[in-house]
Amino acid sequence: AHVLHCGSTRSSALPGPQLVSEEVVVMTPYLQQKQLLQAQFARRAQLAPAAHSTAQLGHIRVSTVDGFQGAESDLVIFSAVRSNLGGRLGFLSDVRRANVALTRARRGLVVFADAATIRQAQGSVWAQWLDWVEEQGAVMKLEHFRAELGRHRSTSAA
Question: Are 29 and 81 in contact (CB under 8 A)?
Answer without folding.
Answer: yes
